[in-house]
Structures are given as C-alpha cells and as structure tokens.
Amino acid sequence: MKNNDSALIEAIEHIFKQTEKNFNVEFWNGETINYTDSPKFTLKFNDKDAFKKIMTKPSAISFAEAFIDKTFDIEGDVINALTLKDQLNDVEISNSDKLTLLLKGTSIKEAINMHTKEKDKENIAHHYDISNDFYRLFLGSTMTYSCAYFKNEDDDLTTAQENKVDHICKKLRLKPGEKLLDVGCGWGKMIMWAAKHYGVEAHGVTISEEQYKYVTEKIKEEKLEDKCFVELKDYRDIEGEGVYDKIVSIGMFEHVGKKNLPLYFDDMFRLLKEDGLFLNHGITHSKKLVVSKEESEFIEKYIFPGGELQTVSDVITFMEDANYEVCDVESLREHYSKTLVLWVNNLMKNKDKAIEYSSERTYRTWLLYMIGCALNFHSGSISIYQILLSKSPKKPIYNIPLTREYMYK
Questions:
Q1: In the structure, what pLDDT confidence band is assigned to residue 131 with cuts at 50, 70 and 90?
Q2: What family is it from (predicted)?
Q3: Domain 6-119 has CATH 3.30.750
C-alpha cells in the first residue's frame, strides 16, 4: 500500500488472515495491497464509506450488498472469490481494529464515490418480477429453471434439461391418455415434453403472470392445445378428488413453507388417483447446515422472499404422515452444482443484454446468488432430491417394477 499505513494494513490482514492469499486488494483511489504477483482475482473497494462498513463488520451479506451497489467489486475469477465467504463469517474484529479501520480508512483520499442516494433508492426486483427475456439469457432455449440431469459429463445445458424432464417421465411411468398435473409448472417444459413424447393429457398450474402468458403462447406454437393446458392458479385452489394418474412438482415446494407442507402433501394426495404416482423434485438443506445467517438473509431479501428449506428426513416424514409410500429417493446435488455453473457462465456471457432487460443491480444480484448456490451445492450444505411417492391402494400391490431399470431405458 503506497501510503505505508502499517496499522491499517494490519487491521485488513487480520480480516483475511485465514484465507488463501491468492488475491489482491484495490482501493477507490488506485492504492493496492498486493498479496501475490499472479492474483486469481482482485477485491476492489470503490467507496470509502462502504469500505468502512464492510470491514468493521465483515460478513457474506455485507460484501454481497456492496457488490450489488457497485461500491465493492470483484475483478477476475468471481467463483473463486466467493469461496472467501465461509472464512469471513468467522472473523471477529477487535475494538482496536475497528477504530483503526474507521479512522485510517477515512484518510485514504477519495477519488470516486459510487454510493449515491439514487443508487440506494433503487429497488431490487424480486424473483418473478424479472422479464422472460432476462431468464432466457441464462436458462437457454428450454426455459427450465431447475436442476438439469447430466447423463454424460459433456452434455450441454439443453441436452441435460431434456434429460431431466425425460428422466422424470420415465420414473412416473407415463402412458398415453393418462392425466398429468405439474404443480408450479414454470415455463412449461415438463408438460409440453410429456404431452408430445408420452401422449398424456398435461395440466400445468402457476401463480406467475409472466410464466402463464409464456406457456399459453408456447402451447399454441407447439400445436399442443388438445393435450396440454395451463392455469393461473394456486395449488390449494385445484378442485377435485382422484383426478390425476400422475403428479409432478419441480422446484416448487421450497415456496410452500414448513407450516403448509402437511396441507401441500394432503392436497396432492387428494388429487391423485388410487395407485397414482407423485414425484417431488426439491431443494433441501443438510442437518449440519453451514450456510450462514447472513447468506440466508441475503436470499430472503433479494431473491426468494418466503422461501424455506427443510432436511430430506423431515420432508420424508411429512410425506409418510400424508400416507404416501416412499418408492424411490435420488440425490441430484452434483447435477445442480454443474447446472448453476452453466447458468452463471451464460449470464456472464450475456451481461449487456441482462442489464438491458433488467438493471445492472439485478444482474449483479443474480450473479452473486447463483455462484453462492453453486458453491453450497458443491460443499453439500444444500442438496436436491427427486422423491417418488405412491398413493397406497386399498389392497396392497406393486405399482412400479421391482427394479429401477425401467428408469434408465
């Protein structure tokens, strides 16, 4: 650091003492702390006030919010930089270091200030307020916003997403003429694939206006009106009893909430025919969850307001309490980590368009969110399971084959 302020350097180094020194630090006036000649990334503090706020209380969310505001930035390998989040959550700052950061940090001459009132007033668009065009930039042509399924290491995103919906169709043993319900159908890939390739009558429900409009038009475009339809409807408002041969829910039950899970599983049970199958595809967290409180607060505030994750053991308990038989449980954790990396790469490649369709603040929020999720799936803090359930008949019989071979034909 050019001003050779040893006390300030010591305070900063204390914060990063447990991290691998494979990065450098740059300040708003161009001054730097160089830990290595070949940095994988550079942490850039663009505003002195933000610097003081972050460094006196370092946490995943303080860095995340500053990144969104552009008062803090990462140059270089963003994914590698995000691995710092776990170490920073354990840092304790002494009163002496805090005072040094507050006083000496102010002495670094100011060149730019991007922390304006206007920026502070910008609102982050919540999950379903973003345009379909924005999602298409990273989801790709399938518009499938859930974990893909990689049969081969080099499968591209489109292939892997089609693998996923087909894998689900095979697990459900879909047959021509059967009635399929997709709860939280997203942009409709599952219902259209099932109708086109398996000849079922597919019914999708969503509570997103944007998704509903998209699926309605896509069904017409694919000429599937006689086999496929979508409704703008909450799962609790679906009427009937024993209506559907098969039910699927992909990436929806995370929004239900723990208190409503008994109602959710009871409703699906009510709607399912005797001997019917229900596949629930959803994210869970480990019992030894290492996702920080700050990280959870970030996701709640900026991405998934109201979202809740449960452990897979609790989810299965809810299922059994609703009188389902658990027929098959498959973890796709590594598949989701790989999916998210592909989404991140797509979003970064389409940065300019993403900003055009939303805002730079939204782009940065989603970039941070998806990288964090990829790392959490990779570490095992969170996972994802496909759980196949059977509505037990009055007279017990087997309604699926004795082995799992049928899933992989």
A1: confident
A2: Belongs to the CFA/CMAS family.
A3: no
